[in-house]
């Protein structure tokens, strides 16, 4: 069965600093990979996704992620964070063979705090 | 366009009581998913509707949980009787069918259930 590990429960960064959130997955083939963000009182919003092709994917709000098959990783990055990026971030994997039943397997999330 | 809505936003009940959560998907979305996040843990899949039919209910914890989607529009998730371990945030997501390779899921803000 597939699984997702987000090793960092909580990360604090200064506004303007760079950010990298880690995500490792376990899956037998090439998975579909996602990053979601949840701001307080909001639903999960899709930041970016990877299905195939170019391993560096760009998302909304200036985020990007890189798929590294050799490391089973899909880390999320942003060169300069803004106070509005404070939220909880979830990495998720989808089963690329289960067409028609696109259930997601999530990691435990990383809470991001931004300090001035 | 209205997003996925969930009601109530927060429910506090006592052990043994019954609670019904409601989800209104985005209009025209055939797929409806329920997920649950127990505090500090990952978001876990509960079940998936395609229109009014249950496509996959492999994540439902036990028979105290009953999900319905009459008419293929809104869905309810009833917990009867509630137990302490049912506390958590229940998310609903919806997606349109037929997108390739993956039907993007749009999430609601969640219902926080507290069982005392």
Tell me what you see in this structure.
The complex is a heterodimer of chains A (116) and B (116). Chain A is mainly β. Chain A has a single domain (3-115), classed as Immunoglobulin-like, CATH 2.60.40. Chain A contains no helices and 12 strands. Chain A has strands at residues 3-5, 10-14, 19-21, 24-26, 32-38, 44-50, 56-58, 64-68, 73-78, 87-94, 104-106, 110-115. In chain A, strands 2, 5, 6, 10, 11 and 12 form a 6-stranded mixed beta sheet that branches. Chain B has a single domain, classed as Immunoglobulin-like (Sandwich), CATH 2.60.40. Chain B has strands spanning 5-7, 10-13, 19-24, 31-37, 43-50, 53-56, 65-68, 75-79, 88-95, 106-107, 111-115. In chain B, the strands form 2 sheets. In chain B, strands 2, 4, 5, 6, 9, 10 and 11 form a 7-stranded mixed beta sheet that branches. Chain B has a 4-stranded antiparallel beta sheet with strand order 1-3-8-7, with no helix packed on it. In chain B, strand 7 and strand 8 form a beta hairpin. Chain B is globular. Chains A and B meet through strand 6, strand 10 and strand 11 of A and strand 4, strand 5, strand 9 and strand 10 of B.
